[in-house]
Amino acid sequence: MGRSPCCEKAHTNKGAWTKEEDDRLIAYIRAHGEGCWRSLPKAAGLLRCGKSCRLRWINYLRPDLKRGNFTEEEDELIIKLHSLLGNKWSLIAGRLPGRTDNEIKNYWNTHIRRKLLNRGIDPATHRPISEASQDVTTISFSGAKEEKEKISNPNGFIHKEEKETPVQERCPDLNLDLRISPPYHQTTQPEPLKAGGRTLCFICSLGVKNSKDCTCSVGSGAGSSSSGYDFLGLNSGLLDYRSLEMK
DNA sequence: AAAAAAGTCAACCGCGAAAGT
DNA sequence: TACTTTCGCGGTTGACTTTTT
Questions:
Q1: Is A15 near strand B, with its CB below 7 A from some atom of it?
Q2: Does any domain span residue A182?
């Protein structure tokens, strides 16, 4: 079987977009809106695959993009959100108007990681590096472990003992590769989060705008991300970690 | 001034989930 | 229910720029 390609690769351009291609894409989306990305290139007269068009539009051409340097407030928000959500860049981007997941991901990898390391904080675990290297080991999740090993052994050398001795994780709080739900059987609808005196469903608590999965009707229209809700309970401490079950 | 190294970021790739049939 | 198609996401690459030697 296998997955069919999203477009005919033989007849598509790759690499950097030209001004003309940008103009065509902008003009088409202005006229017809964002729609079927698969058919868009042909309809717009572009020799690009739909995926490429989507990416170009979302990450670069969208009129509501901010661009420019990140502010200190944005930095701190990204760090906070990353500590809660991990590498869920699209969710993080959803909380930063005008920023894209790709932009935030790049910014994290180039700036914030270093910034946290300079502060002595492990960017993977958001804990002090000294603590992380002493007694915290992520069990059986290679990505997180490799990250830790990189931090504690910057030259890449890994001690055999460290590598082979499983150590119980002391504070397994925010490794979002895990189901961070306690043994918990939900027989009825989970109690929604409350923020600012209003009730939020899980979808809205993550800042997902206009989701069809929204059960509280807050996410649509004027009430969502721009209204100053305390998403994730960052400010109010209302975060219910059971609601952050990721996988 | 030139070469090498490091940093940046747009774009690509492959996968999983959702939607459609 | 099974299969196919499309979309969206996160990881990675590589071209380009900037800084250092």
A1: yes
A2: no
pLDDT of amino acid A222:
33
Q: Which residue's structure tokens are 């959803």?
A: A94
Residue A5 CA, nucleotide C4 C1', distance (Å): 12
Nucleotide nearest to A106 (CA to C1'): B9
Nucleotide nearest to A15 (CA to C1'): B11
- C1' (B12) to CA (A35) span, angstroms: 22
CATH number (domain holding residue A81): 1.10.10.60
d(CA A193, CA A177): 22
**Residue-wise pLDDT tens digits, A183-224:** 333 333 333 444 444 445 444 554 444 444 444 444 333 333
- Predicted confidence (pLDDT) per residue in A73-96, tens digit: 999 999 999 999 999 999 999 999
- Per-residue pLDDT at A205: 53
**In angstroms, rounded to a whole number, what is the distance separating the alpha carbons of residues A62 and A139?**
41
Protein CA A46 to sugar C1' B5 (Å): 38
Q: What is the pLDDT of residues A153-175, one digit of tens each?
A: 333 333 333 333 333 333 334 34
Positions of strand C less than 7 angstroms from a protein CB:
3-12, 15-16
Q: How many domains does chain A fold into?
A: 3
Structural domain harbouring A110:
72-118
Q: What is the pLDDT of residue A117?
A: 85
Q: Calculate the angstrom distance between C1' of B1 and CA of A105.
A: 37
Alpha-helical segments (H) within chain A: 19-32, 40-44, 50-56, 72-85, 89-94, 101-107, 113-118, 129-135, 142-152, 160-164, 202-205
In a domain, A143, yes or no: no
Half-sphere exposure of A52 (CA within 13 A, CB side): 20
- The integer distance in angstroms from the CA atom of A59 to the C1' atom of C8 is 13
Could you report the per-residue pLDDT of A111-129, keeping only the tens digit for each?
Answer: 998 888 888 888 888 888 7
